[in-house]
Amino acid sequence: MLEILEQHINQRGNCAALVDFVEGPISWARLGQMVNTAINQIAQFDLSRPLIHDAPNDLNDVVIALAIASLGGIEAPLDSRLGPAERQRRVDILGGQVFELPPIESVPAEVSPTESESSGLRPSGDSIYASESRHYTHDVTFSSNGRTILWTSGTTSLPTGVVQRHTAWLANAAAKLAAVPQMPTDVRLTMLPLSHAYARTCDLGTWLLSGCTLAVTLGTKGLMTYGPSVNPTLINTVPSVARQLLHEDLDAVGLSRLRLLGVGGAALAPGDFDQWSKRRVTVIQGYGLTETGPVICSATPNNATAGLVGDFVEGWQTQIRSGELYVRGSHVMEGYYDASETTAKKIDTDGWLRTGDLVKRDEPSGQLRILGRVDDVIVLGNGIKVHPTSVEREVESLPGIDHALLLMRDQLELWIDGDEATLPDIEKLMQSLLSFCDVSIGFFEEPLSLAANELTSKLTVRRHQVIANRFGHST
To answer: Where are the membrane-spanning stretches (predicted)?
Structure first.
């Protein structure tokens, strides 16, 4: 890991690597000093055990990640928004070695005074990576011992710790970067938690490999607060935030330079996709799992299409068995932490990982379409199969609806987290999508919440938890 950082220091040491929202830009040279300071502090801990730390999504999280990776340690960041019980559950599983570093001095060393026209930041200039976007990791070596433990989103069960080698993480980031190149002149604003796989790879990893400038915050509030001072060209987010931003004046929230909007966790509604296209922003959708690095598929700036997640990125072997996707390759996790039996159920003896997702090739484009989870398929009495995820995404594309849940009890039931005034629109959509059966429609009295574990960190529905909470049983 240090080799990559050292290359940036040698090539563009005075250029902006990070943005401190108080002090301003931090050069690659200064970042190197900060990482060395952290290395000296972290080296006193037992590197053979997971190094657990709370991750509020700030610059310290970036420095800690680079330092532990450089030491060949096992980093275990915990989302700072976790409730006390869930946090303690994870700490207990990981063995309890929790550490906290004091804020690492971030006053920048001299940064080149040349300013970016719109952001006030010095971009990184010509990069050794810029011209060969498919060969980011070929000239550097990594510690073979380094690992990161991230947690599954818990969509279908309790979140589980996933062990990923740093070499696999960087290879996955390089594959994403090959599909969606970014330049050292780009400014990336991270608003998703770096303690989760999507931002860890597609924000932190692609930043490190490309040598662009990175600003770190958390959530929509952070984006709205700091966007105007950063003027990013690249952002990754989730569908609900992408929709919310369509109601904002992009100039006012600092997104006038935005050119690529990555959207993960769920599909963006086609109407929202089209609205972003009209604003000359390309929406990049992809697909993957925490267990796969996470990127399995990614659209490119040239083929981005509503409802599709692109083709497989470099490094994957794939099979589709009875509609379900299986993958094999160097990006696959080492396994679930301290859960060999669970790992064996996920990855067979030949190395094939069962994704649990039903997919279909879009014949004209060759891209993948995600239909839903294998275990969630509802089989009606007449034998017709219904994919709840596909129906829910269509419903959630309607204005005024935050979340939808389709389940089978005595009959098909569609439950809505949103404005009851949307009922006529929902009924019309159901006549189109599910005309072959009756569907009862209800509205949750209380919104689904993170606090009740009903939503993932990506604000997608934890189906089994919602059913258990709201209906008193699980499926």
So the answer is: none
